[in-house]
Structures are given as C-alpha cells and as structure tokens.
Amino acid sequence: MTTERILIVDDDEMVRSGLALDLEDEGYEVFSAASAEEALEALEREPVHLVLSDLVMAEMDGMDLMRRVRKRMPDIAFVIITGHGTVGRALEAVRCGANDFLQKPADSDTIRERVRSVLDDLRLRRTLQADRRKEQERRDERQKRWMREQRMISLGRLADGVSEYLATVLEPMFRCHEEVVQTLPDDHPAQAHADDLEYAARKAQALIQDLHTIGHGSHLRVEELQLEDIINEYFQSDEMERLKRLAPQVRFSYQVDEGLPLVNGSSTQIKAVIKNLVVHALEGMPDGGTLSVSLHADRVQADPDRAINGEAGVYVLLNIEDTGGDAPAEELERVYEPFQARRVGDRVSSTGLSLGVVYRVMQEHGGFVDIRHRPGQGTTYTLCFPAVAAELEIVEDEGDGFSGHETILVVDDSRKHRDQAAELLQELGYQVVTAEDGRGAVQQFLKARKSGGRRTIDLVVLDLVLGDAFDGLETYKKILEIQPGQKAILASGFAEYSRIIEARKLGLSRYLQKPYCRDALGQAVRAELDKE
Asked: Which of 136, 233, 295, 460 has the most CB atoms around it within 10 Å of its CB?
C-alpha cells in the first residue's frame, strides 16, 4: 500500500517538529510548512493525503488556507488544530469543509487516532465513490446493450421483409440465366456478359440468404457436432486456400484442443460464421499481421448484462484473433449492424452483412459473441457455444489462490444474488449454506452451537441491507453474541455511509460491491479466512 503523506502547517517550529515526530512514528511520510503561503507552494510540489493546519497564523489563517486547498485540491483531507478553539469555530470549520477539528493541547494518542480516523474515512469514501462509478458504468453498458438488441430486432424484421421482396424481384434473373447461356453459341460476344450475370446472380442469392438468416434464421437441421472437425475441415478447404492466396502477407495459425464436448448446431451455419469472421479479420489487416484461431472448452460465469445469453455453464469457445489496427468506439458500438462504415487506415469500407449474420447464428445456437478490442494490438472475436456434454469436468485453475474447503454462510434477501454467490463459492471448492434473512442466519449459528463442534461456520458473506429492521449489522451483532470473533464480509449494492462506518467499528473491514463476480468474491473470502 502507498505510504500516506501528511503536510503539517504551523508557525510554531516546536509544534511542527513534535507533530512530525509523532506521525512519522506511525509510518506516515510527513512534510512541514511554517505558513499558509509556504504550504500552498509545498502542495504544488508534493501532493499529500491530509493537511494538519494551525488555525491562527499571520497573513493567511488556517480557514483561508483550507478554502484555497478545497478549491484547488478537493480530494485532500483537512484537519484544523488550534489553541483558540470554541464550539462556534469548530462548527464553522466543519461547515467550510474541515474533516476534523482538534483543540490544543492534544496528546499524541488523540492526534494519531483522529488522523487515522480521517484517513480511513477518506479511503472508504473514495472506495464507495469508485464502486458507484463502476455501478453507473455497468448500468450505462447494460442500457447500450439493450438498445443494440432492440436495433437488431428491428433490423431483423426489416431484413426478413427485404429478403422476400428481393427474391421475388430477382427471380427472373435466376430463372432465365441458364436459358440465356444455353441459347447463345459458345463464341458469342454476349457470353462474357452472361458470366457477369452468373456472378451477380450468385452474389444476390448469397445476400438474400444472409438477409433471411438475420431476419428469422435459416431453420436448418440441428445435430450434435464436434466443432474441432468443422474447424479442421474449414482450414483445409479450397476456400481457406483462396483466402491465403489473397492475403500472402498474413500469417495463419490455429490450435484446437482434443476431446472437446459436443455442441448442438448446424455445420452449414457455423462454417458461414467462421468464414465471415475470417474475412472480416483479414480486411482489418491490409498491411499484414497474424490471424490466430483457437478452440477450447471452459466454464463461463453467469452475466445478466450479456446481450444474447447470460447463463452460466460449460461452453466450447472459438477464438478468432487478428492483429489489425485500432477501431473507433462508435464503430464497435454498431459492429453487428448491416453495412456499417469500417475505417482501416486511410480506407473506409462497408461491413456488409457478415457480423449481423454472426450475431443471429449465435443467437440461434443459444450462445453468444464476445468482441474484445485491444488498442494497437488487434481484436479477438470469441464465439461461445453451449456444450452438450454437461458432465464435462473443467479443472479450475487453483493458481489464483482463491479456492478452499471451509464452510461459508451466505446471507442475502435476494434469491438471485444468494444463489449466484453460492454457485461461485461452490465452484471454488467451498461448502456453502444460505439464509434469506438475518434471523435465518442466527438460526444457522444456533444449530452449529448445539452440534457441539461438529458443524462450524468459518465465514459469513453478509448483505448489509436485508430489507427489514434486522439488517446486516443487527444480524452480525447477534452472531457475535453466539460466536465471538466470527469472521464476516459485508456485501451490498448500495449502503448508507453511516452504516458502513458502524460496521467498521464492529471489526468488519472488507466490503464487496454487488452483483458478485468470481475474482472479487474469491479474493475477499480467501483473504478474510487467512487473516490472523
């Protein structure tokens, strides 16, 4: 953790030195200033976490200094210490932005305790602000995904109608083409035009098929498939050889795990998806690069924000990765929509229907697409197909240090969050019991006590806001009466600052933002269990 930095401002050299020695003994990095003007200059050179300032000083007093610091550096904590204190001055100082007000003479223990308390409060406030920003970002991203889904639904209806209309309009070209070719002599000058007509007919048929797929799917026969067979077949196909000839400056590589579970799907659609993504990736690397394809199986966590499929389970993951250039954020926002402008270097092209087809096909297969762009490095397209073989064992990576075998009690009045936390902890190897409210949690501890030590609860993951008067704090107080020193972690989607401060006084030092995620939950649980 970064050493916290404190600036002491006092025109009495003896006071400055004494305060500096006390605070340096506590491990803080301390700077000193003999006047408010000197303090402002010091703050420009050395940013600090807290200013401890005398109130009465020549030229500029502590209140004026605080106002200037608050205006220029609002995140710095400010504590005023004075020998001329009154209740009125203290109230004025707090009203103007002081985090605390100390009366001289103050003993060393009081100063250390009050400074520590202010810095802890400041850190907690920043953590809560960061959590709220993250939550707002998640809400914004959820809204964007919902809007994208609505656009795709509208485009699907339009595409369905357009495909039927185009099929009707172009039907004479499809029907008459062969008759024209057979009627004309082989050496007729119009044969060249007939070849152009055939090429145009094929392109039109492919376009209509793509529009039809985006509109309401192809309704092809679905069967159990081995994706590695499809990948191997595609990479050895004439189509792939043709693409390699067209892009000689691109290096191709692929890695396929063996013994993967089956997936339900259409081999024709999946091949079309692979082709569309490979072509899309190659178009993004006009000056060369590397196109990597890999296939493996893994357990994917639940994600309610995911646009197509938010369910947890075992998936077969197909990764297609390019080393193309940067993609603007607005381009990525509409990447699945037909005929979007795509900028590659100085060229601007159209995405056509390719990624719209990918989106629709993955939707039909009950899977999802994950696109991750790395500025300056390229883009990875991950197609996630639900595995048929539910009995597949995925060996969890225990190198993260989050796993364990202890017993965890999850207390949450939201069944969704309670089940989510239980599932994540069970995947990490823990034994999990749950309670839907504080009273149920207390009952679990009473049962454990009656068992005479046969049942123990090593840690409680406790929702702070449980929906009634017997909230997380009241629950924890009752638990401590039954089991003194019981380890626990607070969790909440939103909580009042005052309640979190009260929780800290009870010894609860870890706080989790909901919804739960595997790494944050696992790390917090393991750290609390290992704490001496």
From this structure: 460
